[in-house]
Each structure stands twice: as C-alpha cells, then as structure tokens.
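Incident review: delayed structure delivery

Summary: a single-chain prediction request sat in the queue longer than the usual turnaround. Root cause was a stuck worker, restarted by the on-call engineer. No data loss occurred. The affected request and its eventual output are reproduced below so the record is complete for anyone auditing the incident later.

Affected input:
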Amino acid sequence: MTSPNDSARRDAERWGRHAELLCVIRLRLTGWRILSRRLTAARGSGQGEIDIVARRGKVLAFIEVKARSRRDEGLAAVTPHQQQRLARAAASFLGRRTDLAALDVRFDVMVVGPGVVPYHLADAWRPSF
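Output delivered after worker restart:
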C-alpha cells in the first residue's frame, strides 16, 4: 500500500521532470545545445545531480531547475551547500570532458512556476574550484 507521502513525492517528481522539459525547450529555442540532462555523480560521492548541462558559443552552463510557485522561492531553494555539491559535480564532469575546458563556465538557475515561461537567471553564483 502506498502512503500519502509516496503519492506527494511522485507528484513532485513528475512536476520536476515537466519543469526540466520546459527549461530544455526554452534553452533550445534560445540557441543552447543540451549536452546532458540529469547528470549524476556516483552515489555517496557528495556531488549530487546537475539538471541540465548546456552550451551556447563559448559558454558552458550548469543549470539547476527549480519548480516552485514563486520565482523568489525557486531562487532561494539553491542553498550554499547545494551550490558546493553542484560545483563538485561540474568539476568532475569537466575532468572527463577535457574538450570543454576552454569554455567559460557558469552556474545558472531556472525557475518554473505554474502557467509561466521558465525564468532563467544566468550566472547565479560563482563557485571556487
């Protein structure tokens, strides 16, 4: 038997996947090439998951997607701890993809709310590698 928490978790997961798809569509329409989605590091590595890795010209963006009812809630949901985990995952990715080493790397956040176009905050933070 499933609990109400399981149902809520599935609904949140479904909404998050839908939000990622909306972001991918917006990125492609604005000239970005998607290099990876749901990029995960090894379990237990503390590196987390990067929702979208995209490239446009000489810019390589590691993009965190947040599905929230308000934009400010989505932006606040990317905590410093999560930023560190994403930076470690990005460094690991770049270590495997040396062909991308010369690109300008940045970390973006995209927030998707009900009935609105995804909001894209470019260069949301700068990690220290």
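Verification: The beta strands are 33-40, 49-56, 59-67, 104-112, 119-125.
Action items: add queue-age alerting; document worker restart procedure.
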